[in-house]
Design goal:
It is a single chain. The chain folds into 2 domains: 55 residues; 126 residues, Cytochrome b5-like heme/steroid binding domain (Flavocytochrome B2, Chain A, domain 1, Roll), CATH 3.10.120. Helix content is 48%, strand content 12%. It has 7 helices and 6 strands; from the N terminus they run ααββαβαββααβα. The strands form 2 sheets. A 4-stranded mixed beta sheet has the order 3-6-5-4. The chain starts with 12 loop residues before the first helix and ends with a helix. Belongs to the cytochrome b5 family. MAPR subfamily. Pfam families: Cyt-b5 (PF00173).
Length: 197
Amino acid sequence: MTSSSIITPSSSPAASATSTQVSAASGEETTSWVQRISQTLIKPTSLVIVSIAALGAAYFVYKSLRKTKTRSITGDEYSDTSSDEESDESEEMEMRDFTLEELHRHSSTNHKQYVSVMGKVYDVTGSGFYGPNEVYSIYAGHEIGKALALNDVSSQHLDQFDLSDLTPQQMDHLTSMVEHFEMKYICVGTLNEWAQH
């Protein structure tokens, strides 16, 4: 035989056809695997599951970021340390009347700190200002309207009910502070002595 008539397995027409079939079969397997994954992910039920998972993740991120830094009445930043459970508990709390003596029990050393602003008693627990050794700890357990109007962080103007000597600017400042407390803190009651004054 001549060298040109020797047939190698790779050059035979039958081998070439078999090789093409294997390539085609492996291409079909690859394509069908990719198609199966695509079809599974595109099914309506899969889209719903993926959407629910994405919404759950977004809600978790929102709840984590919701407790962001807030500005205090003096512009200082602090973290809100109250939890959702505490908020729910506070929302269920009934409004009540306090005497000045009862309010004094909610000082900076108590586990619940309350302040009264023009006769409205607010729960300021966890705000980062009214607890022991905090910047406004002296306010906890007191009527602080006049002290706020005068920007006084001493005991001199605590538990004072007569505001007749305040200037219009001081009254405006007190009004803005009342609005701040109404937005920031939960009102838990009223102070009897304020109503009697």
